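re: ur question from yesterday

yeah so i grabbed the chain u mentioned. its 127 aa long if i counted rite. heres the sequnce exactly as i have it in my notes:
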Amino acid sequence: MFILYSSTAGDPMLLDSPRGLREFDREFRAFLKSSLTRTSFPAITTGDPGPESEFLAGLRVEKIQGPSQLRLADDRWLELTGSAHDLAQLCKALSELDDGDHHHWYTSPVSLIIEADEWRANRENAP
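ran it thru and got these structure tokens back, copy pasting raw so excuse formatting
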């Protein structure tokens, strides 16, 4: 999984192959069903982030009471908070993407673009 960002483009993008997104979906669902309230999902940060300007380090998630929110932390991680019910909507988006599809998951203060791209995910992961 890659998380790409450019301050000029706006919303960050979570990029992986369809298979990678389904694996992330399974891990995310396991977290939602667990008694844990916080977890993190490190992202791959090697390769060329172009056309975006940088890779973000990963996604931190916290289950709270209240609406979902996504923000970019100073240490270049995305931080997502929300109720288990709201966060489950992200899982739905992850599991439904085929190669070439993308989804906009709207939150505040930023939203997340989720993209399934077999070719780009494998190209970014190449040494």
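noticed a couple things. The longest helix spans residues 18-33. also The longest strand covers residues 58-63.
anyway ttyl
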